[in-house]
């Protein structure tokens, strides 16, 4: 079966790469490429089965509400998710009409890079063995949010692994002379965000214990590194009803 795929945010840096990747992918047909001024009705007119959503936190909810209401599966790379937004999206998915391939599915991926997903998994495995951990993420200076969705998700996975292992939450004895000097607190894990022209997307997870440290680092050097994950998401989401958070659920890990 050939999947009819649309890209929302097709003129952005990742969106334009996604357009090329879908066009070149076996078993997919690019039926719509929506930019800033496009109407969402183009999705239904084109008969899109899956929409790849790569826009901005300000517009993602409107786009997903339209997709779910019209029985279009979605693969989402836009960040800015919180429990309230996820709950609203889950309600839309439950109310969505069924499709020829089954109930509507939605994948939200904090990162589509396979290396970034593996970094999160490795960090989760290491979390219970070290006394302290911090996350540093580095991105280009035009990124819309901070900390990144990847860093937030990494910290959440680390915290969950530490909790499951019975490790206490980290204590920070330092005096904070300036607000934010110790970064953001994500479930007890400090997360630091760097925004610098010339970077793309990078992350370090630093673990420390008596006499040793462990650093896990991933670097995205070109937007093309996200395309295998996006294409995997498109293929899997039509077989996976409801909300899936994290590309790791579509990988054999």
From TrEMBL:
InterPro entries xrefs: DapB_C, DapB_N, DapB_N_CS, DHDPR_bac, NAD(P)-bd_dom_sf
Predominant subcellular localization, coarse grouping: cytoplasm
Its EC number(s): 1.17.1.8
Gene3D superfamilies attached to this UniProt entry: Dihydrodipicolinate Reductase, domain 2, NAD(P)-binding Rossmann-like Domain
GO cellular component: cytosol
Positions annotated to bind NAD(+): 9-14, 77-79, 109-112
GO terms assigned for molecular function: 4-hydroxy-tetrahydrodipicolinate reductase; NAD binding; NADP binding; oxidoreductase activity, acting on CH or CH2 groups, NAD or NADP as acceptor
Positions of the catalytic residues: 139, 143
One protein family per Pfam: DapB_C
Domain Dihydrodipicolinate reductase N-terminal: 4-112
Subunit structure: Homotetramer.
Function summary: Catalyzes the conversion of 4-hydroxy-tetrahydrodipicolinate (HTPA) to tetrahydrodipicolinate.
The family this protein is said to belong to: Belongs to the DapB family.
Protein name: 4-hydroxy-tetrahydrodipicolinate reductase
Organism encoding this protein: Streptomyces tateyamensis
């Amino acid at each position: 079966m050939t999947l009819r795929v649309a890209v929302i945010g097709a003129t952005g840096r990742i969106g334009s790469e996604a357009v090329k990747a879908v066009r070149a992918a076996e078993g997919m047909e690019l039926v719509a490429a929506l930019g800033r001024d496009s109407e969402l009705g183009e999705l239904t007119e084109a008969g899109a089965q899956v929409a790849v959503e790569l826009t901005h936190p300000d517009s993602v909810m409107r786009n997903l509400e339209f997709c779910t209401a019209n029985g279009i599966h979605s693969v989402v790379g836009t960040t800015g998710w919180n429990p309230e937004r996820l709950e609203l999206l889950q309600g839309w998915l439950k109310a969505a009409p069924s499709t020829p391939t089954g109930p509507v599915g939605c994948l939200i991926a904090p990162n589509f890079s396979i290396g970034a997903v593996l970094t999160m998994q490795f960090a989760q495995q290491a979390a219970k063995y070290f006394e302290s951990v911090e996350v540093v993420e580095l991105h280009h200076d035009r990124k819309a949010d901070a900390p990144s969705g990847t860093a937030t998700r990494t910290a959440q996975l680390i915290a969950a692994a530490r909790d499951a292992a019975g490790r206490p939450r980290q204590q920070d004895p330092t005096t904070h002379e300036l607000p934010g000097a110790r970064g953001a607190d994500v479930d007890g894990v400090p997360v630091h965000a760097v925004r610098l022209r010339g970077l793309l997307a990078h992350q370090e997870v630093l673990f420390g214990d008596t006499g040793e440290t462990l650093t896990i680092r991933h670097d995205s050097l070109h937007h093309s590194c996200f395309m295998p994950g996006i294409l995997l998401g498109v293929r899997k989401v039509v077989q996976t009803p409801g909300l899936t958070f994290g590309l790791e659920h579509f990988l054999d890990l």
